TrEMBL record:
GO terms for molecular function: protein-containing complex binding. It comes from the Bacteria. PANTHER family: MIOREX COMPLEX COMPONENT 2, NADH-UBIQUINONE OXIDOREDUCTASE 39 KDA SUBUNIT-RELATED. This is NAD(P)-binding domain-containing protein. Residues 7-160 form the NAD(P)-binding domain. Coiled coil: none annotated. It comes from Candidatus Enterococcus dunnyi.
Length: 210
């Protein structure tokens, strides 16, 4: 299949590109940075890296015309308003632009959005933006899937591994398990595999908010 990933050069996007290439799919990554200089593994040579900013240009549009799936892996965890980095701009606006383009196609690609199952109170605005983006998608008429991962762990982010292990420990303690019941840590590799299962027509537990 022909799969386009927005944010393919990011934390989740690179793992997803790698997994889909391993499964023999045609993969195009669209991001503001194109192909990162730090990616030198063999699989990266099979990805079509496009340098495009969905918020500021339309160079990305031609890649979507013949796509089977379009995956939105764009996102930020924290805002930096003084630099113009906000949840509205980097979570909601890309979805709005992709949705507008796909809606205009006679045979639009299937769309997959990475939302979130839950987030702690300090990330309340983050979850609000995710839910707003979900609502935009629900109002469209093209086929779509929304996935709801929680904490994503990977050794590239040591704090995520520590946090994930802590949550798993708390889930075993009656006094704490209520507070962490909505958080199911998943490795970046597992997330990439679950999304691959979805695009290949298999079921995934991530397609329902838990």
């Amino acid at each position: 299949m022909n799969i386009v990933i927005f944010g393919g050069s990011g934390f989740i996007g690179t793992a997803l590109c790698k997994k889909l290439i391993q499964h023999k799919h045609t993969v195009t990554s669209i991001s503001r940075h194109g192909r990162p200089d730090t990616l030198t593994e063999e699989w990266t040579n099979y990805v079509h890296w496009i340098h495009s900013d969905i918020l500021n240009d339309t160079a990305w549009q031609s890649a979507l015309i013949h796509a089977d799936w379009v995956i939105d892996a764009i996102g930020i965890l924290t805002e930096k308003p003084n630099k113009g980095i906000t949840y509205e701009r980097f979570i909601v606006e890309p979805v709005q632009r992709m949705s507008t383009f796909l809606t205009a196609q006679l045979q639009p690609a299937k769309f997959l959005f990475l939302s979130a199952n839950a987030a702690p109170f300090p990330l309340k605005k983050y979850m609000s933006a995710k839910r707003k983006a979900e609502q935009v998608i629900h109002e469209q008429h093209f086929p779509y899937t929304i996935v709801y991962p929680s904490l994503i762990m990977d050794k590239q982010r040591p704090t995520s591994v520590i946090g994930g292990k802590a949550i798993l420990c708390f889930k075993k303690l009656p006094i704490f398990k209520h507070f962490v019941r909505d958080y199911d840590p998943i490795t970046r590799e597992q997330l990439a595999m679950e999304i691959t299962n979805i695009v290949e027509g298999r079921q995934s537990f991530l397609t329902e908010r838990r």
